[in-house]
Specification:
12 helices; alpha+beta; 12-stranded mixed beta sheet
Length: 409
């Protein structure tokens, strides 16, 4: 049997080389169908990775909540303890300053800069790509001067990032320890992250004598939970109900003043992408089915034209199984070659697309267009399957043909 199988494969390759034009014609439909399948898998993979990166940059890693207290918090330390007791694995302040903060380098003040008061743990909650320097460290909280991390757009406007001052009416020297990469997903064009420390406490929170009206008082944190935490349900609203039971410890008696909601959106984005992918795969399989019919039609024509050749093989002692394998394998070889051509085209398309979107800065760092491993397996596997299915009917017809009638042609 092994000898017959080997002989059949040899005859299949010989037949493919002998009919180059017919082989190319058979390939065309399969190339389009397999290419469509691989492109759909590529698009799905890219879309899911983009959605995850978008969520991690814009909101945070999976199971990240934003917790807002719309009231005067009398003990922020107690609030942060309760955020962790309620299930927070990482907790960071996420506070807009009580008043506008200005920034300058030398005598040039940079306008339109958004400041955000944060803790060092934000680096464990949100995806932040540091282009130069570093993100905040815990020892920075002991600095006597305010400590900043700025984005590249703001850094380019500062004449010297080593000589920076910030202030709300009175300038103080500040330290810039890092620069994060710009992305199209930044919450502002020019952004400065201000580390919460004793040196910045008054900038971030209004003093008791200058407290804003109660309707404008709020304190905001971002909290990352375990993805299995029950507070993740209902878009994160359940976490606020759990937290409100301890509100008296930090001066908030009204449960309505405490709200929480999920800011990571990967799950919401990936689910529609999954359904869209299934729909596009259905269309691609229909296209591949058209290619299967093309290979099948060419196979039937080939068997009819090669009846004398096949009959001669039989007369010379070739077994039925050898001829069956030869006809089927010829279709498989043709389809597999078509799959390889489609895969090569998709790799070229992925390289071109990745270069363009990276150059234009349309995607977050680390997100590129690629052909995933499951796309390669699906493409080559479906191509081989099409060849196998398309070769069975012509092979069966070849076996039913009379040897005597074939030799007389």
């Amino acid at each position: 049997m092994l000898r017959s199988l080997t002989a059949g494969i040899v005859l299949a390759f010989a037949g493919s080389r002998a009919n180059i034009a017919r082989t190319i014609l058979s390939c065309a439909g399969v190339v389009i169908g397999v290419g469509a399948l691989i492109v759909v898998v590529m698009a799905s993979d890219f879309g899911q990775r983009y959605a995850v990166a978008y969520s991690e940059i814009q909101g945070g890693l999976p199971a990240t909540l934003e917790v807002v207290v719309d009231d005067d918090v009398t003990d922020r330390g107690a609030l942060e303890e309760d955020l962790r007791r309620s299930g927070g694995e990482q907790v960071s302040l996420y506070q807009m300053p009580s008043d506008t903060i200005q920034i300058r380098s030398g005598d040039a003040t940079v306008p339109d800069v958004d400041f955000l008061g944060v803790d060092a743990e934000l680096g464990d909650i949100r995806r932040l790509d540091v282009a130069r320097g570093r993100w905040f460290a815990e020892e920075d909280t002991e600095s006597l001067a305010p400590v900043l991390v700025v984005n590249e757009s703001l850094a380019s406007q500062l004449s010297d990032v080593t000589r920076v001052q910030i202030g709300q009416g009175q300038w103080v020297d500040a330290r810039v320890v890092g620069v994060v990469a710009d992305t199209n997903l930044d919450f502002a064009w020019q952004t400065a992250y201000l580390l919460r420390s004793p040196a910045t406490e008054e900038m971030l929170f209004a003093s008791a004598g200058a407290q804003a009206p109660s309707d404008d008082v709020h304190t905001t944190y971002v909290v990352r939970l375990d993805p299995e935490h029950p507070g993740i349900g209902e878009f994160g609203e359940g976490f606020a109900r759990t937290l409100s039971s301890a509100g008296w410890r930090w001066g908030v008696d009204s449960p309505e003043a405490i709200s929480s909601y999920r800011v990571d959106s990967a799950d919401l984005l990936v689910e529609p992408l999954r359904y869209m992918t299934w729909g596009l795969l259905g269309i691609a399989f229909i296209t591949l089915g058209t290619g299967l019919l093309g290979v099948l039609n060419v196979g039937l024509v080939t068997v009819r034209e090669r009846r004398r050749e096949l009959a001669t093989y039989r007369a010379l002692g070739a077994s039925r199984f050898t001829l069956f394998v030869a006809v089927v394998m010829e279709a498989v070889v043709v389809a597999f070659v078509a799959g390889v051509i489609a895969l090569a085209g998709c790799w070229a398309l992925a390289a071109l697309g990745s270069a363009v979107i990276t150059e234009l800065g349309l995607v977050p760092p680390g997100v590129d267009v690629r052909v995933p491993a499951n796309g390669v397996l699906l493409g080559l596997g479906s191509a081989s399957g099409v060849g196998l299915l398309a070769g069975i009917i012509p092979a069966a017809r070849a076996l039913r043909a009379s040897v005597v009638a074939g030799l007389r042609e």
